[in-house]
């Protein structure tokens, strides 16, 4: 369903952006959300209730901490004028307050009788490893989709629709491999497929990071995306199963909700870090290119002789961004090898024959 949703999303998003407005990619979620909320009442059976109190202090501290962290990370990048903003008062204050808020969040969760995020959930080696892998992969995925979309539309001149269609090999490959991996996990357990996927991930990302202005779609984007699709299918199926292995029904919701939260936190923080570095590279290229010193980013819509210079600057930033993503996948591989020890009999029962 994730694969199909992604496939429909990138194509419909391209259609909406091309023929309506980019704002519709936000508006379209409103009727979908309302339909899901209404349908869930009649389709999804009620689960067992476990009364809890709201952990409002933890929610406020955690949300404020991550919001300020993202603000500080994105603000620190070097601008087109070549000036770095890491030493700006607003950046320093945001990062300092973020550190205090996140430390307060950990303190609150450790002392709360019913914490929003029980810290003991990280005590299990396999589950802590899963969250670590998830953070690394989320940062990689968000960075890849953002910068590759930017590259294909700005440098190669793809429309929003064509840019969405460019990801279909990844979506199709993910659906196929995920279906195969579901059967592999029931026979081999989680560690072998996850390790194979974790080994393929740096290969796919490094290959993808070599894309440049003269690359062809087949060798520069399509083939490495297919390798990355195999990576995603081999990792995410056992990852979601290992997440709830050996945990009680009462706490399964907390453990599984961390899957979504981990994707959002890892993706947002990862993209903020990768984006700050990448845009610093792009802006330094712009600043040191004689043709662009006065034009800056207006070269995007400027004269034709300026466009190749900016395209090269943007390509350099994309290369750095995807290379950082490759480094994140190497870290995910290390965590997989060191932390994941879940046994096949500990995994949730699969509906498929063993």
Give an overview in words.
The chain has 354 residues and is mostly helical. The protein folds into two domains: 2-23 and 124-346, Up-down Bundle (Growth Hormone, Chain: A), CATH 1.20.1250.20; 54-113. The chain is built from twelve helices and no strands. The protein is globular.
Proportion of beta-strand residues: under 5%
Which structural category fits the helices and strands?
mainly alpha
Low-confidence segments: 350-354
Roughly how much helix do the residues carry, as a percent range?
A: over 70%
Number of helices: 12
Query: CATH homologous superfamily name of the largest domain?
Result: MFS general substrate transporter like domains
User: How many domain regions?
Assistant: 2
Number of strands: 0
Question: What is the element layout, followed by pairings?
Answer:
Blueprint: H1 2-19, H2 24-27, H3 29-43, H4 56-75, H5 89-111, H6 125-155, H7 160-165, H8 168-188, H9 191-209, H10 217-243, H11 249-288, H12 307-339
Helix pairs in contact: 1-8, 4-5, 4-11, 6-10, 6-11, 6-12, 8-10, 9-10, 9-12, 11-12
Structure keywords:
single chain, 354 residues, mainly alpha, Growth Hormone, Chain: A, 2 domains, 12 helices, 73% helix, 0% strand, disordered C terminus
Describe, in short, the structure shown.
This protein is mainly alpha-helical and 354 residues long. The chain has helices at residues 2-19, 24-27, 29-43, 56-75, 89-111, 125-155, 160-165, 168-188, 191-209, 217-243, 249-288, 307-339. The chain folds into two domains: 2-23 and 124-346, Up-down Bundle (Growth Hormone, Chain: A); 54-113.
């Amino acid at each position: 369903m994730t694969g199909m949703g992604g496939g429909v999303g990138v194509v419909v998003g391209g259609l909406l952006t091309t023929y309506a407005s980019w704002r519709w990619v936000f508006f379209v979620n409103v009727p979908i959300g309302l339909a899901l909320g209404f349908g869930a009442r009649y389709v999804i059976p009620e689960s067992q209730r476990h009364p809890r109190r709201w952990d409002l202090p933890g929610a406020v501290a955690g949300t404020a901490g991550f919001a300020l962290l993202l603000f500080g990370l994105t603000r620190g990048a070097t601008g087109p004028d070549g000036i770095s903003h890491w030493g700006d008062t607003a950046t320093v204050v945001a990062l300092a307050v973020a550190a205090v808020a996140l430390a307060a969040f950990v303190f609150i969760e450790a002392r709360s009788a019913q914490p929003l995020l029980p810290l003991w959930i990280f005590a299990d080696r396999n589950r802590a490893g899963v969250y670590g892998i998830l953070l690394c992969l989320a940062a990689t995925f968000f960075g890849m989709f953002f910068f590759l979309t930017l590259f294909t539309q700005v440098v190669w001149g793809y429309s929003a629709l064509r840019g969405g269609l460019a990801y279909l090999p990844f979506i199709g490959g993910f659906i196929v491999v995920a279906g195969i991996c579901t059967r592999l996990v029931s026979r081999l357990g989680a560690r072998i497929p996850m390790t194979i996927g974790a080994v393929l991930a740096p290969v796919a990302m490094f290959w993808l990071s070599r894309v440049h202005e003269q690359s062809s779609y087949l060798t520069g984007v399509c083939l490495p995306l297919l390798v990355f699709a195999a990576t995603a299918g081999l990792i995410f199926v056992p990852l979601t199963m290992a997440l709830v292995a050996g945990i009680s029904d009462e706490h399964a919701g907390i453990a599984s909700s961390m899957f979504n939260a981990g994707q959002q936190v890892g993706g947002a923080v990862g993209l903020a870090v990768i984006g700050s570095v990448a845009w610093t590279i792009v802006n330094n290229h712009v600043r040191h290119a004689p043709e662009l010193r006065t034009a800056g980013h207006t070269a995007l819509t400027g004269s034709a002789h300026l466009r190749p210079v900016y395209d090269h600057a943007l390509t350099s930033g994309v290369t750095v961004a995807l290379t950082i993503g490759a480094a994140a996948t190497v870290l995910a591989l290390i965590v997989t090898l060191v932390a994941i020890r879940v046994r096949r009999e500990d995994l949730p029962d699969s509906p498929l024959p063993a």
